[in-house]
């Protein structure tokens, strides 16, 4: 990472120290504004910061890309890696920096008999979905009035059982912190509620 990039990252983290509780500091008048009318800072392909040279090319990606990576790995893989990474802050650093909407692309690796789920953007992350959700829960416990929207999408390689496993993990980890669909105002959010948006034929 170059000097300029390191300085930019440091600046972002420092800004996070001022914005990690920005929703808590909103004027009371905005607590009556529907959540759908609030502009939430978002993170596109939020988990791509943890892609590295060990990350495998997605099986649901371009067949040409898979072929090139297989036969010209030393040349092609570093290029794919650069294309794939859109974030350099961790999910906790993004939360501290004020991000409240996360774009999560979910995947299950082919030929993997386990139920482990990963994030994907051309490449699979090495970190598992469940690990990141636990990290977010721990952050929320220290930020009881922040509302976070997690948008789960893509679902590369997931079948019905994998999807049920994902929903089960979300419910197990966040439990009563999940925001009911009929809650639309910040002032109606209970203590440390987390709101989820699931794109897979259903919304939680």
TrEMBL record:
MF GO annotations: phosphoric diester hydrolase activity
Pfam families associated with the record: PI-PLC_X
Protein's UniProt name: Phosphatidylinositol specific phospholipase C X domain containing 1
InterPro entries: PI-PLC_domain (IPR051057), PLC-like_Pdiesterase_TIM-brl (IPR017946)
PROSITE patterns, per the entry: PIPLC_X_DOMAIN
Source species, domain of life: Eukaryota
GO biological process, one term: lipid metabolic process
């Amino acid at each position: 990472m170059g000097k300029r990039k390191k300085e930019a990252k440091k600046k972002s983290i420092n800004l996070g120290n001022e914005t990690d509780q920005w929703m808590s500091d909103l004027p009371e008048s905005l607590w009556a504004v529907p959540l759908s009318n609030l502009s939430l800072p978002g993170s596109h392909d939020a988990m791509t910061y943890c892609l590295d040279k060990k990350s495998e090319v997605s099986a649901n990606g371009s067949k040409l890309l898979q072929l090139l990576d297989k036969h010209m790995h030393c040349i092609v893989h570093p290029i794919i890696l650069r294309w794939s990474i859109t974030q350099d802050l961790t999910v906790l650093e993004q939360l501290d920096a004020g991000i409240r909407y996360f774009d999560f692309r979910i995947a299950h690796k082919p030929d993997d008999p386990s139920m482990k789920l990963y994030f994907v953007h051309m490449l699979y992350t090495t970190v598992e979905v469940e690990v990141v959700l636990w990290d977010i829960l721990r952050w929320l416990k220290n930020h009881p009035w922040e509302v976070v929207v997690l948008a789960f999408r893509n679902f590369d390689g997931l079948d019905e059982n994998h999807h049920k496993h994902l929903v089960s993990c979300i419910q197990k980890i966040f439990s009563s912190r999940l925001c009911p669909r009929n809650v639309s105002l910040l002032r109606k959010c209970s203590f440390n509620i987390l709101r989820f948006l699931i794109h897979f034929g259903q919304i939680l």
